[in-house]
Amino acid sequence: QVQLVESGGGLVQPGGSLKLSCAGTGFRFGVYTMAWYRQAPGKQREVVASITMWGSRTYADSVKDRFTISRDNGKNTVYLQMNSLKPEDTAVYYCHSETLSGTDIHWGQGTQVTVSS
Question: Which of 86, 87, 56, 84 is nearest to 70 (CA)?
């Protein structure tokens, strides 16, 4: 059974940092594109960052130069380092896995990130 389990969310002040983790089980983690999405109240879910099996990274314009996605295939884990956090980064962050063909897609349960003073 495929599972994606996120951790690391919480409350942080503006300008602070958080590191999210997502551990995957039940699938060949190393051959999947992994991504982080987020959904703020009243808004559509949006992609934040993604990393392919070869390590190629893409970022939403709103998080470039502040967030870094990485993966450790030996630990079946993908990370999202978030620096210089802003109130508008407040959202539920979801881990996402997908094959290159797009035929096998999975989501984590989400972790809340709140940026507030």
Answer: 56
